[in-house]
Amino acid sequence: MRKYLGLVMYVTGGLLLSFAGGRYALGMIRADQAREAWDGAAAREAVVLARSVALHHGHREPVVDGAPVARLIIPSIDLDDIVLEGVDGDDLNAGPGHFPGSAFPGEPGNAIISAHRDRHFNHLDALSVGDTIVTESGALRDTWVVVSTRVIQKDDPALFATKTPTLTLTTCWPIRYLGPAPDRLIVTAKPRGERAEARRQVAIRKAAIRSETGTN
User: Fold this and answer.
1) Is residue 116 annotated as a catalytic residue, yes or no?
2) How many CB atoms lie within 10 A of CB 195?
3) Is position 172 annotated as part of the catalytic site?
4) Is-above-0.85 flag for pTM?
């Protein structure tokens, strides 16, 4: 009986590993295809067109789910990935996903990008306030500065609309943990031109912490 149970567990484990490996391989293939598409003109032109329609008519034509819409570069964690439209399982298996309806990076509003904690955002927790992020979206290339990192519980509100350009990166928390990860890590960044204001806000927060703890 023990031998039978051991064989069943062995076969089941092998099947699960094969399934996970297959999904990973498919994700890699889709990621390569997305980068090739982004390097061409068509994908960028689609983003420019969507922006233009939103600017002149007050609404944006929907971008096809799974289409490449941006490039995300985070030098401090050696990340350089193409962002796909949508945040379902297949999209996030291939790369970070742009939350439909949110702003594109560089537009007024909150551009929200999500990715799996065990794939493309597996080192997102290494980001610190002051780190830089670069995005390419359509014809725009923007440099951002991280202004906050926080972990919130699963039922807490996480994503908010903004009037000014904002970049929000999010993934499940805790990262690199074998088990449920119901909470969320939220990284917020502002355009580099707002670095002075970001530093001022950081200084204010540090001063508040020192005041609360009684440290100098």
Assistant:
1) yes
2) 16
3) yes
4) no
